[in-house]
Design goal:
about 600 residues, alpha/beta, Rossmann fold, six-stranded mixed β-sheet, four-stranded antiparallel β-sheet, 20 helices, elongated
């Protein structure tokens, strides 16, 4: 798209930049075939109408009523379709042929609608799936720049709007443009006296209306987009802070915010619909007045030849019957596209921002590819900063031993969490290099080692569902290893020695873990990490919501575990310090060994 707008040529050719894969273009052949057949049937019907009327007027019952100039010799039949000889043998062939063309046109119109919806919905599904996959690979950067509610809107609401208000109207343009041009051309050839002023009237009327409403359509589209974002934002904020809302009695604040956003959204939605359908009754009235006036003038000036105009008028009526809805559909679809183009342009920009060269994640590597993480993690001049912000870590040179328990301490906001995510390969350094057993974390070979890492986030999320989908994270239910599941739950102290696995699986987790205490949520996240049988475990404030006794027992059990060879514990608590082999202090973007602790340990 050029100049930040949707071009008509792109819509007619179904070109949407990089947003829609080129493979979908090959599926338009059947749609275009249906459109061509339907329009051809309409053209044939229109060609047959004057001939049918002329044949009717030339019947014996009407001969006495016709004037000398009446078309009793069926001139239009011989001029438009050479059917005179054929009609001598089959008197009813012309009406039957006309009826067959109408049925064919209607049947293929239904097929066009079905094919349009199929292609539009498939396009929406493909686009949303592509964006979702790209967001899974590169979503952390987007989370830093946008709220989650906006990302959800782009994946769900905007993709739906794109398929319904951009793709579907674009597909509808093709048959409507073909039908309008073809029938107008036939009408112009057969009845230029009626066709030329009528076509000019319709084109000028729709053009003037569209030009007058163009700025309003754009304004309505912008307001629709912003009000929908506000609705989604208020909903997300309210659902994530229900406890605080109830405690501080702030229901009215969120209710008013949602009501204002909803009122704005539905008001502009109704305006958009009104602008799309408003011209139709006006154009129908203008066409009726034009036709009535034209017929009255011709009848008054040529009273004896009035009946000769009947075939022309019949063709004109049929053309209006077919062309006017097609023109209205063209206007309505262009109005939808124009008012919703901001959603499409925003979606296109979002797709371009997501990098497309990252390798897709397919879960764990094959067991034969797994390499043991047995050496160390080397930070070599590592610097990391968020988008446009100052460096959280600068020129870090440190080594972490897989066989040791390393504890990271430091003030809040100093970069401890960033250090843990860099060690796991969750984040990539802005500058410098991180190597695991000599393999850079940015290389493809690191994927075979990454599976031996596990990370318990400080603000990890509990997904909707029970215990199994939270612990066996990302594993289909029929592939869950129950032995590993039970082992992880017992190590995380979520399954007492006397409890059975079946009892634990019946436990209710609730939406986002609402039925669990803070400590239970942390230990459920720990069980998720232990299910993978990691060699190196990163714990980010995992013990912040558990008592000292339970913290000591958990860490001691993890240190004795045969699978976990090393740990990196990020904490403000004192208990992990007594189990540490190495303590690292993070201050002012630097990572240094705590010499005081080393002397005390010695």
């Amino acid at each position: 798209m050029t100049h930040g707008a949707v071009r008509l040529a792109d819509l007619l050719l179904f070109r949407f930049g990089t947003l829609v894969p080129a493979s979908l273009l090959r599926q338009l052949r059947r749609f275009r075939l249906f459109s061509g057949v339907s329009v051809a049937a309409d053209v044939c019907s229109m060609l047959l109408i004057p001939s049918m009327v002329a044949l009717l007027l030339s019947s014996p019952s009407l001969k006495g009523e016709q004037s000398a100039g009446a078309p009793h010799d069926a001139r239009m039949v011989s001029n438009l379709l050479d059917l005179n000889g054929f009609l001598d043998y089959i008197p009813f062939s012309l009406p039957l042929l006309f009826l067959g063309c109408l049925i064919c046109s209607s049947l293929f119109s239904v097929l066009i609608s079905a094919e349009s919806y199929r292609l539009a919905m498939k396009t929406g599904r493909v686009v949303s799936q592509r964006l979702f996959n790209a967001l899974l690979r590169n979503g952390r950067r987007e989370l830093l720049a946008r709220p989650k509610s906006e990302l959800r809107e782009k994946l769900l609401h905007e993709c739906h709007l794109f398929s319904v208000h951009i793709v579907l109207p674009s597909l509808s343009l093709v048959p409507n443009v073909l039908r309008s041009l073809s029938l107008s051309a036939v009408l112009f050839v057969t009845s230029p006296r009626i066709a030329l002023p009528a076509m000019l009237l319709v084109v000028l009327a729709y053009s003037v209306i569209f030009l007058c409403l163009r700025s309003k359509l754009k304004t309505v589209g912008n307001r629709l987009k912003m009000s929908q974002y506000r609705r989604a934002g208020v909903t997300s904020d309210a659902l994530s802070t229900l406890d605080e809302i109830g405690l501080y009695r702030k229901e009215g604040y969120f209710s008013d915010g949602f009501a204002k956003a909803s009122e704005d959204y539905f008001r502009n939605l109704s305006r958009n619909h009104l602008y799309a359908i408003a011209p139709r009754p006006l154009l129908e009235l203008l066409c009726a007045c034009f036709l009535g006036g034209f017929f009255a003038v011709r009848s008054y000036s040529h009273q004896s030849a009035a009946i000769t105009m009947v075939p022309e008028l019949a063709a004109f009526f049929f053309a209006v019957y077919r062309i006017l809805p097609a023109c209205q559909s063209l206007y309505s679809n262009l109005s939808k596209i124009y008012s919703h183009q901001n959603f499409y342009l925003s979606l296109q920009s979002f797709a371009n921002e997501l990098t497309t060269d990252a390798t897709s994640s397919t879960g764990l590597p094959h067991p034969a590819m797994l390499r043991p993480a047995s050496g160390r993690i080397d930070f070599l001049g590592v610097t990391y900063s968020h988008l446009g912000s100052s460096a959280l870590l600068a020129d870090v040179d440190v080594s972490l031993d897989f066989a040791a328990v390393s504890v990271v301490v430091g003030p809040s906001g100093s970069g401890k969490t960033t250090l843990g995510k860099l060690a796991c390969g969750i984040l990539a350094p802005t500058n410098g290099l991180i190597c695991v057993d000599g393999v850079p974390t940015t290389s493809f070979e690191f994927e075979a080692i990454r599976a031996r890492f596990a990370y318990v986030a400080q603000d990890g999320q509990i997904i909707n569902g029970g215990v199994v989908p939270n612990v066996a994270f990302g594993v289909p239910e029929h592939e869950v290893d129950l032995c590993s599941l039970e082992r992880a739950l017992r190590l995380a102290r979520l399954l007492a020695p006397e409890e059975t696995l079946a009892a634990a699986l019946q436990r209710t987790v609730g939406d986002a873990g609402v039925c669990l205490s803070g400590g239970e949520r942390k230990r459920l996240l720990l069980a998720r990490a232990l299910y993978r049988r990691p060699h190196f475990l990163v714990l980010d404030e995992m013990t912040s919501e558990t008592d000292e006794t339970l913290t000591w027992e958990l860490l001691r059990e993890l240190k004795k575990n045969a699978d976990v060879r090393g740990m990196l514990i990020i904490t403000h608590d004192r208990v992990p310090l007594s189990l540490a082999d190495v303590i690292l202090r993070v201050e002012h973007g630097k990572v240094v060994a705590d010499a005081d602790f080393q002397r005390k340990s010695a």
